[in-house]
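User: For documentation purposes, I need each entry recorded in a consistent format: the amino acid sequence on its own, followed directly by the corresponding structure tokens. There are two entries in this batch. Please keep commentary to a minimum and don't merge the entries.

Assistant: Recorded as requested. Entry 1:
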Amino acid sequence: GRKVILSDTVGFISDLPTQLVAAFRATLEEVLGADVILHVRDISADETEEQARDVEAILESLGVDPDVPKIEVWNKTDRLDPDSRAARETEAARNPDVAATSALTGAGLDDLTAAIEAHLANETTHETLQLRFADGKARAWLHEAHVVVAEDQVEGGWHIEVDWTGRQKAEYAKQAG
């Protein structure tokens, strides 16, 4: 029963006009708060490697923390010839941060789900917080961040159990500070 929020940002944006990239910037900046980044690639595209480099450059320009785990999703394996598909699938199987998939056929989606779960399990800790009634803003932040797993009202405030990442805990400390 883990709750996960997935946010889909704008796709490949190389060679877009500057003003259009600026318009997409707010959407792209959602990755700044991510606990895991899924970089979905069209692995069948001739320019897949160039596109991957462009995306990495954009993530860097946005200031994405290089320590945020990334999983490359090599999608559209169904479009590859059998030998290329087998080679890509073998290569992906050797790297825990790569999943070879086909959204069309469903191939590889179980491996992708397992990779996401593994990253989130490594990143999440369980803690218990005691908040006063005066800490309503902090309590609201916890709920908006979807980290609350249990909550009881007690004398003078709340007893709240959370599952959160180090990044969420640090953000909470800034908010509650």
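Entry 2:
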Amino acid sequence: MPDGDKQSLSDFRAEIAAWIDENAPADVRGRDFSEDDICWGGKRWTFKSEGQKAWLEACAARGLTAPMWPEPYGGAGLSRAQDKVFKEEMDRLRVKKPLDSFGLWMLGPALLAFGTEEQKKHLLPQITRGEIRWCQGYSEPGAGSDLASVQTFAEDKGDHWVVNGQKIW
């Protein structure tokens, strides 16, 4: 729901609470969750349960894996206040996040700010659906996270890049 809509936050709270209650399977609610319960996404991701998969799919279809991202890029277009209400209702109903990934909290915001329109339309919806997984490769043997000491480099081969170097972790 975009900022410009006239719906009050109390109406939004009632609507989103009802939606969560209707769509969150039993195995993603009502208890404390550990890191083992997190859905990181990606092509090779193995869901812990059918409920976890269904919850991700329901939230992604409504844009709720990235609530404040614009709708054309897979988000729900929520305002900051609506996002806060959504998170409060998730906490109140003890429902776990459908997806937690580097793509959502690190790469996605960078693409939103600096990516081309083509990159945004191609990559961001895949991130919100948990279809692709991203990582950050700073650490190297002998360099750690000291970016000035990183030795990995990429060569432009015209139609592709060749990356050479080592990473750890």
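Summary note for entry 2:
The first strand starts at residue 153 and ends at 156.
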